[in-house]
Amino acid sequence: NAGVTQTPKFQVLKTGQSMTLQCAQDMNHNSMYWYRQDPGMGLRLIYYSASEGTTDKGEVPNGYNVSRLNKREFSLRLESAAPSQTSVYFCASSELAGRGGNQPQHFGDGTRLSIL
Amino acid sequence: EDQVTQSPEALRLQEGESSSLNCSYTVSGLRGLFWYRQDPGKGPEFLFTLYSAGEEKEKERLKATLTKKESFLHITAPKPEDSATYLCAVGSSWGKLQFGAGTQVVVTP
User: Fold this and answer.
1) Scanning every residue of chain B, which has its alpha carbon at the shortest distance from the alpha carbon of A112?
2) Phi, psi of B81 (to 5 degrees)
3) Given pLDDT bands bounded at 50, 70 and 90, which one contains residue A41?
4) Which of A1, A108, B84, B98 has the fewest CB atoms within 10 Å, i.e. is most exposed?
């Protein structure tokens, strides 16, 4: 079982360049998420997609865009990369939240992005 | 505003020396309390979900408990392979999680 697959695993960009981070899940989950993780700050939500066809901003959306391509795939795009976007990016997926509460999210192994 | 605070930031244990990690939270309506383990260079790995005060979950040497204001992750007789960063998260609104900064645990032989 692959779970959540992220590509690429590592990337170095120059300031101003653009790139797309890819994420795919094979667990038939409805909801998908993008986080960034910085030292001492924990995981912060960038964007999420509660279900296919919907996307919403999280805590730190500025400088990013997302596309929910289909139920399996959720991509994150940096249009004009800045050094402040140097981070580790994680994609996650979960079952749809219900009245009883949220469902656990399952994570990929991340994309390590450096912007010079 | 929702907040999640984990303590201590780092914990160094001898093999077999039991200890507890704390996760205190303030949230308007708790929609689950989640514990994860994260190894270097990897994504967080789900451990437990707790939904109600008084609830407990166990897995091998780990036991998670929940009150109305905090959760504890107890590590009983830890082994070196329990070394990792442990993350706590609260379900703060529909579908979303708010994460703490984590506790880094090192278990020495």
Assistant:
1) B41
2) -70, -5
3) confident
4) A1
